[in-house]
Design brief:
Blueprint: H1 4-7, H2 16-27, H3 38-53, H4 60-90, H5 103-135, E1 138-141, H6 148-162, E2 169-171, E3 185-193, E4 199-205, E5 213-215, E6 223-227, H7 228-233, H8 236-239, E7 243-255, H9 269-280, E8 285-291, H10 296-306, E9 313-316, H11 325-328, H12 360-365, E10 369-373, H13 379-391, E11 395-402, H14 410-420, E12 424-429, H15 437-449, E13 453-455, E14 462-463, E15 466-474, E16 477-485, E17 497-504, H16 507-521, E18 532-535, H17 539-555, E19 561-566, H18 572-583, E20 587-592, E21 609-613, E22 619-620, E23 623-627, E24 634-638, H19 644-648, E25 650-657, H20 660-674, E26 680-683, E27 689-692, H21 704-713
Parallel strand pairs: 1-6, 8-9, 11-12, 12-13, 14-25, 17-22, 19-20, 20-21
Antiparallel strand pairs: 2-4, 3-4, 3-7, 5-6, 7-8, 10-17, 11-15, 15-16, 16-17, 18-25, 19-23, 21-26, 23-24, 24-25, 26-27
Helix pairs in contact: 3-4, 3-5, 4-5, 13-14, 17-18
Length: about 725
């Protein structure tokens, strides 16, 4: 019998016909209402973030941080997902969503849920987190709570640091209504001309480059701050001398900021992207947030001038734009933060008895190395791998994908150093990474100036795979050193994103990566690979074959088990395959951070499917796919979520794990997450997520991330014996 691992990372082609026929027959048994709406599921994910902010057992500054994360998440949701639905409606492309509802109905459902969540979010700050911080000695003050001496000190600060950069804009026959930039915080001001008695309107933008919270002079025993917009509002007379300030209200506008590029019609992708980024600033409005005390006269003016509907107005119990709480969360009060987790160096990369800098290549030659960030250090693994490659005279070439990274990244610097030392360096830069486009253009040009061969992938596809490939000459032969990961080559996010990465010298992985990079930088069409599953041509197909193999095993009475960990699962083909497997008895465990269109309440279909979600101090970001395979587990890690964009419009790669110890590590990590003893959210009927934090006897459940850190920190390099 053909070993499925020998042909490629999927199954043999001989089974294609039977596989397709089984799919066609079984589809007739699946109900039409078998998917949860992806947009409402995303809002449910952000509600889970909000529940962390509402959790009184968590440290206060962490709760403030979760409020800021909720706000930032929701902004992006409106700028991209809601904007996309509106665009489809306006252009007449109002095709049904994945649950069959129209874009109009989907938008109405989103609006209702988003309104509820934003009000709940505001109340979480005003009634829970802010009072809690005050009890802990961190006071967010209002102007009327301060005494005269404090008013004077703040007025002096306003005059020297704030007033010079403010730009009040009048609205009258000589001054048209000004452009309102997306996500800016603004004051709508009504004033009366003392000479004519006529009422006028003015708009004042709160400068984004200034601190959102200004420290109030006082004792060192507590921290007291005032919001920047509050300080500005009480000095409006300074901005409109000779005028009577009648009223002022805060408002904030969200615009469509998604980027669309017709790559096929663009000769220069960078120039086209730069032009589109300029247009992004002027995208149509999609949400207007106002404080709940805004009068109808001011609101009517804003609605008219901004050409926005009443349903797109979000009246909130202030303050607006709680992203500013990121500033508060950085206050130096360790007792109000999570206890510190200090990443350790992966055992394979730990220094020996001599404490000299370890040879990364030597460590990888001894066997595959699996690293788990942020529990294991990015700096002493991925970064060290590329930095050593850059300075090693035996290294001839480095090839790498870059999707998101920091502007001062040592990864980028390592590639520059390698190119300047005469090595062949290829950087496949994804300049279309959403909201990182401008940054990516900057450092792509920096790489080009240093002599790096910079390419931008295949037309129509984003390169999302996390791949690095080093070719080194050893004893007259070329040896491949490869890294395949689940997370970006970004030293900053590696401290808060949970990810796995595999280092290997397996010649087959090296050949797969070499061919893949050649195809991405040249004109070749993707072929099959041996130890990789690569999108868009084969990744979905390969996973479906693995799922179907488990289904067939269950039908034959054999043990069958599927484990999937992803950020999102939306793809209908994958979901339907899991339903078919579950229906015949396959145990299906899904661990998802964000969107989940899979239902667990379909009688006779999803009875064997369990879905969990875990949110915490780290963002669960790794993707794991594990199949029982008749007792010989096949396990993959990589960059792909189960979404159309990942499987059809991106270059993604999963690598098959072959080391038995690594397979055991991944399965144990997964099973701990799915355990009833672990703190998590459970997906229940009708798409409701229920959080489980204590056991039946009232004991706190296990924190997966704390337990994982404690376990990894116990690993130590064995000391040599003499």
């Amino acid at each position: 019998m053909m070993d499925p691992a020998i042909v490629d990372a999927g199954l043999g082609d001989a089974e294609d016909d039977d596989f397709d026929e089984a799919v066609a027959v079984d589809d007739e048994l699946l109900p039409d209402d078998r998917y949860l709406d992806r947009e409402l599921s995303w809002l449910a994910f952000n509600q889970r973030v909000l529940e962390l902010a509402e959790d009184d057992t968590l440290p206060l500054l962490e709760r403030a941080n979760f409020l800021a994360i909720f706000a930032s998440n929701l902004d992006e949701f409106f700028m991209v997902r809601v904007a996309g639905l509106k665009r489809r409606i306006v252009t007449g492309l109002a095709v049904p969503t994945n649950i069959g509802t129209s874009a109009v109905d989907a938008l109405a459902a989103i609006s209702a849920q988003a309104h509820q969540l934003q009000v709940r979010h505001a109340h979480a700050w005003t009634t829970r987190v802010r009072p809690g911080l005050a009890e802990a000695g961190i006071h967010v003050m209002d102007w009327n709570e301060l005494d005269e001496a404090e008013h004077e000190a703040l007025s002096e600060y306003f005059g020297s640091h704030v007033f010079p950069v403010l730009m009040p804009l009048a609205v009258d026959p000589a001054h048209p209504f000004p452009y309102i930039s997306g996500l800016s915080l603004n004051l709508a001001i009504r004033i009366r001309n003392a000479r004519t008695g006529r009422q006028e309107f003015a708009r004042l933008k709160v400068p984004a480059m200034l601190p959102r919270f200004i420290e109030v002079p006082g004792t060192a025993e507590s921290t007291r701050v005032i919001r920047l917009e509050e300080l500005i509002a009480h000095h409006l007379d300074d901005l409109f001398p000779g005028m009577e300030v009648l009223d002022h209200h805060l408002f904030r506008l969200t615009r469509n900021e998604d980027v669309e590029i017709e790559e096929d019609e663009s000769e220069n992708l960078i120039q086209a992207l730069e032009a589109e980024l300029l247009r992004r600033r002027f995208g149509p409005p999609i949400r207007l947030e106002i404080t709940d005390d805004m009068d109808d006269l001011t609101l009517d003016l804003l609605v008219k001038e901004l050409d926005i509907t009443d349903k797109e107005v979000y009246r909130l119990p202030g303050p607006l734009d709680l992203r500013g709480l990121f500033e508060l969360s950085r206050i130096d009060r360790p007792e109000l933060r999570y206890p510190p987790h200090v990443p350790t160096t992966a055992v394979a990369f730990q220094p020996g008895d001599s404490n000299e800098r370890p040879d990364v290549f030597d460590a990888i030659r001894k066997g595959d190395v699996l690293v788990h960030h942020p529990y294991e250090s990015f700096a002493t693994s991925v970064q060290a791998f590329l930095e050593q490659a850059a300075r090693d005279p035996q290294v001839l070439a480095i090839k790498q994908t870059l999707y998101r990274t920091s502007g001062d990244s040592p990864i980028v610097q390592a590639l520059i150093d390698a190119a300047e030392s005469g090595k062949q360096v290829l950087a496949l830069v994804e300049v279309k990474a959403r909201f990182d486009e401008a940054n990516n253009i900057v450092w792509a040009r920096k790489l080009e100036k240093a002599g790096v061969h910079v390419v931008y992938g295949i037309v129509g596809l984003k390169t999302h795979g996390k791949l690095a490939h080093v070719i080194r000459e050893e004893n007259g032969m070329l040896k491949h050193y490869s890294h395949v990961g689940t997370g970006n080559y970004n030293p900053k996010t590696s401290r808060i994103y949970e990810d796995f990465g595999l280092f290997t010298t397996d010649p087959q992985v090296g050949k797969d990566l070499n061919r893949l990079f050649n195809e991405l930088s040249g004109y070749a069409i993707e072929k099959k690979f041996k130890r990789l599953l690569v999108a868009p041509l084969h990744l979905r197909k390969g996973l479906l074959r693995h799922i179907d193999r488990e289904r067939r095993a269950a039908e034959q009475g054999k043990p069958a088990h599927i484990r999937i960990k992803v950020n999102s699962i939306v793809d209908e083909a994958v979901i339907d395959a899991l339903y078919r497997a579950s229906a015949v008895g396959v145990k299906v465990d899904v661990w998802v951070r964000g969107i989940c269109s899979l239902r667990t309440d379909l009688d006779g279909i999803s009875d064997n499917i369990t879905v969990r979600s875990i949110l915490g101090r780290y963002l669960e970001h790794s993707r794991i796919f594990a199949f029982h395979n008749n007792g010989s587990p096949q396990v993959f890690i990589g960059s792909a979520d189960m979404m159309h964009r990942n499987l059809d419009r991106r270059i993604e790669a999963l690598v098959r794990i072959t080391d038995e110890a690594h397979i055991t590590q991944l399965l144990e990590f997964f099973d701990l997450a799915m355990s009833a003893r672990t703190n998590s959210w459970h997906l229940e009927a009708d798409g409701v997520w229920q959080r489980h934090t204590v056991s039946d006897d009232g004991e706190p459940l296990i924190d997966l991330q704390d337990r994982t850190m404690a376990k990894i920190q116990k690993r130590r390099r064995p000391r040599s014996t003499r």
